[in-house]
Amino acid sequence: MKRTDRVGGFTLLELVIALSITSLILVFIGSAFFMSYRSEEKASERDEFLQRIRIINERLTWLIRGAYPFVKVSSDGNILYFSGKEDSLGFVTTSTLSKSAIEERAGLTYMNIFLDNNNLKVMEKLFFEKDIFEDSGGREYTLFDNIDSIRFEYLDGKAETGAEQWVSEWLPEEKDYLPSAVRITLTIIHRGSIIELPPIVVNIQASKRLT
Fold it and tell me: What value does the CA radius of gyration of the chain take, rounded to a whole number of Å?
């Protein structure tokens, strides 16, 4: 009778099967780690995006809410220092920029918010300067970058009828009172995409007629 003794160890087939199973396990573990990393990365990106939106909302609300109905009285007629256009907004405000040197010289400042090469900027001036509505002069600050577009609208409350209407312009030569609110629509550039944010509506406290 022929006796066959098996020496301890693995056959080639068993080794191949073991390596295949080990490889599959490593693939599953690697996929789980990668999915977990991507999930945390997306959550971090989402939190960063929401934080940016919150800061934009708070900063614009802070500046516009402090709008003050200052009227310059002259022989040529009274002029309200509030120039509202579809793509820019100029107004006298009690709010200030934290790093502004002008705030040390006046309690009120004139600010013009506008878009320049995907940067949302503000031009700050002393409100009693003669060239207040000009584009030159003052100090210029960048509020936010990667802004694709901005649109302002103004809520006009008709005192005689009680009706309200959103308009695209608020001309200082035609108005002697501030709008009841300003609505801002922004589109921002985020990771190569253009995203339109929900409109920001800022109620103006000092919106009563001055007459």
Answer: 31
